[in-house]
């Protein structure tokens, strides 16, 4: 048995020394140390060895296995070193060559517009507040004076998760949540993504962004609303910007209005950009409805407030003269790198 083990080791040494790559080395490992290898066969024949000789034979087999494994590992390390040296030779880097300039990302037009709007209102003392995209029906509709039979709750306009939960159609629910906290006065804006069941075209999308604002305090009047939004328009579109308010209807404000700004391209003279009118519609606004205050636990006899909402995409389209809203979502690098 000792001579047989010696012959196996000698054979392994010869084959390992003559091997020319990792594939051949693995074949040698299997032939000597695998389940059907030569050393395994010796172990299986141990039952034929006399009991008193088995410990000695077992030790000899283990010694042979250890020697073969050491030879395999040594040869494997030699192959790896040779491979690494060849790789280094082939992949030599010429440090005198000019470096490749990494491509840098650019802010998205929506991001630029949002940061500008936030900075304007933060400068006026407003707080930026965020709320959930998936909202309860109560906060999205009922608490904003939109009853169960209101057209705005139709399924063709709203994405319903179930009868009680919707994808928010506006960021106004965030305002309700702030009013319910009872920490007055309130001066806040609520930017965020909203969802409506609209067809995708140049001016509509089922997912877009709004920035809504809310002020609640004692002795707040319509004059405060008009003055605040006039300053906002001047900060956003230029000092020469003028504003115009047109009567409108929103369930959660009374009185309500839509605000236009004088065209910042033609100065109000009329051009293609403003479709010849000299004015551009920019946002909706109004005084907070007393019933909305009551439902949020605020006494309308003591406190009043105003609210407004502007579409973030609309601001981006106007400021950067973009004709198609879809360009904001297609991630075309040729378009985005202009900003």
Walk me through the structure.
With 339 residues, the protein is of the alpha+beta class. The protein is 40% helix and 20% strand. The protein has helices spanning 2-18, 22-33, 38-44, 54-90, 109-123, 137-140, 172-180, 222-237, 290-295, 312-319, 333-336; strands at residues 127-128, 134-136, 160-162, 165-167, 186-195, 207-217, 243-250, 253-262, 279-288, 304-311. β3 (160-162) and β4 form a beta hairpin. α2 runs antiparallel to α4. The longest helix has 37 residues, at 54-90. The radius of gyration is 38 Å and the shape is elongated.
Widest sheet: strand order? 1-5-6-10-9-8-7
- Rg, alpha carbons: 38 Å
Distance between the termini: 82 Å
Number of strands: 10
SS element count, helices: 11
Please name the CATH architecture of the largest domain: 2-Layer Sandwich
**Estimated helix fraction:** 25-40%
CATH topology of the largest domain: BirA Bifunctional Protein, domain 2
Question: Which descriptors apply to this entry?
Answer:
11 helices; 7-stranded mixed beta sheet; 3-stranded antiparallel beta sheet; BirA Bifunctional Protein, domain 2; 339 residues; alpha+beta
Brief rundown of the structure:
By secondary structure, this protein is an alpha+beta fold. The protein has 11 helices and 10 strands. The protein has 2 domains: 89 residues; 228 residues, 2-Layer Sandwich (BirA Bifunctional Protein, domain 2).
Secondary structure: elements and pairs:
Elements: H1 2-18, H2 22-33, H3 38-44, H4 54-90, H5 109-123, E1 127-128, E2 134-136, H6 137-140, E3 160-162, E4 165-167, H7 172-180, E5 186-195, E6 207-217, H8 222-237, E7 243-250, E8 253-262, E9 279-288, H9 290-295, E10 304-311, H10 312-319, H11 333-336
Parallel strand pairs: 1-5
Antiparallel strand pairs: 2-4, 3-4, 5-6, 6-10, 7-8, 8-9, 9-10
Helix pairs in contact: 1-4, 2-4, 5-10
